[in-house]
Amino acid sequence: QVQLVESGGGSVQAGGSLRLSCTASRSTYSGPYMAWFRQVPGKEREGVARIYTLIGTTLYADSVKGRFTISYDNTQRTLYLQMNSLKPEDTGKYYCAAGTRASVVAAHFDYWGQGTQVTVSS
Question: Rounded distance, CA 42 to CA 79, Å?
Fold first, then answer.
């Protein structure tokens, strides 16, 4: 069973930066697509960024383009999300996910981390 463990969340003021990390606990293949989602209470889980780990192709939600960068270190089996120029609306619980489908729909991902909270104050 693949386990994904996130870290790096926290509280920051608007305009600040955070870097999230997500490490796979085993070398078991979990699919070439990895992504970051975020969720706030009462809303569906929203896709933030996705990467095709084999060649590094990325996809971003319009709301984070130019501010967030997703990357993957194959040797460390670690997914990153560098978040700059953070806004209060970026607040939420951030989850990493892995799967075999080129999708930004949460239901299409097979493996999930436990989530890490990001809070951005104005």
Answer: 27
